[in-house]
Amino acid sequence: MFTDTTYSQLSEQQRLYLNDIASAFEISSDALGKIVGQITSEMYRGLASNPMGRASELSMSPTLVHRSEPAQPVSLGMAIDATGKRIRIGSLRDGQGQVSTQVFYPPSRENIFDFAAFCIREFLQQHGLEGTALPLGVTIGLPVDSASTDVAKEDSLDLCGSDVGRRLCSAILRNHLPVHVTSVTNNVVSELIAARHRDKATRVAATFNRGINAAYFEKLANVEKLNSSSSSDIAINTEVGRFGSLFNSLPQTMWDRRLDRESRCPHTRALEKLVADQYLGEIVRNLITDFMDRQLLFSASCQVQAISTAYAFHTAYMAPIMEDTSPDLQMVDALFTTEFDIQSSLADRLVIRELCEIVATRAARLAGAILAALVLKVADRETSQCIKVALNGVLFDINLQLFTKTVDTVKSLLKRRSDAQVEIVFQSRSDDITGAAVNAAKH
User: Fold this and answer.
1) CA dist 46 to 68, 235, 245, Å?
2) Taking the model in full, what pTM does it have?
3) Is pLDDT at 383 greater than 90 in this prediction?
């Protein structure tokens, strides 16, 4: 993994510890293939009416999606961020793929539905839509099944298991708004709807943001727990980020276990904590501080308060560090000086770049395994050998190397296991709103 130039600049102790870390984070192709098989098995188990003695780690929640052509000339889509820090509303006209959007920032996370009603009123006034009753599709980055027992994600609204639609409808009625809620979907299902609205061949959607999730279209007759013989498609929200939480199916390191132990929701969403944007920077920070504790990084007199703060090293820092090819790694130097008040040597900066590479490479390989499992599940019943996947997420927006490694991993895994081909299309960040509005327009 390390170049001769890197090795020549590092001390023997730095090289040895870097090699130990690289070995701990490495996932062989065979191990990755096993993970693909286990995810696929959990998907089948989650659809079964009698899941052979235990429930699936994945929720595999069916979501009915309207399949007709848009019947409403104007429809609304609303996206509530899982953190409750942002609400986005968009309008879709005549079923076209583009939406006009507006962003609102709640002053607090209390009374979020009353604030959402205020946002709707503001949007209708500013866009001249007050005259007629409009359908509203709502999407949120949390499980929307009212029976869900899933715990809240890190820094998220505590809405899991809540009836989001009912609470929003109550707020709309209290404020006498000419809007009726037609559907509430998870954001990855909304992204799947938007992707299929543009291209009927799209079968899978996956999102890699603060959390990770994926959805796909399944034949209703294959969802045994619904006991239906229909050949219609139904969207399945997998909640794939939960995988590995119950049966230690993932190759976790001591740094992963530390992050999990100190998180808001320990022993849950194990795969998400190895891949999601929210966690990768914190894993790197833990590795950096371990180097510091071994006196293998930075001078003894450097300021350590900032870098010692949990989640102070953002995942967004990783891309410019990894892309820095200057002889002295000037971008890395500037970042640590500006953000952490740390003066670094070239050896320090080389270590940091390698740590980012190690963490990003593992995340990309696991992300590739997720996508490969979904493609294999869909390919089981497809006559076409090319499966179209819609991909969305800030994780890939800000790190092209991670995206490239993910795509390479998907193709490599599929080549080993199937004749299926994959075409990956990157989505707009507003496609969750588009999908919600499209679903509302078809009601």
Assistant:
1) 28, 14, 15
2) 0.93
3) no
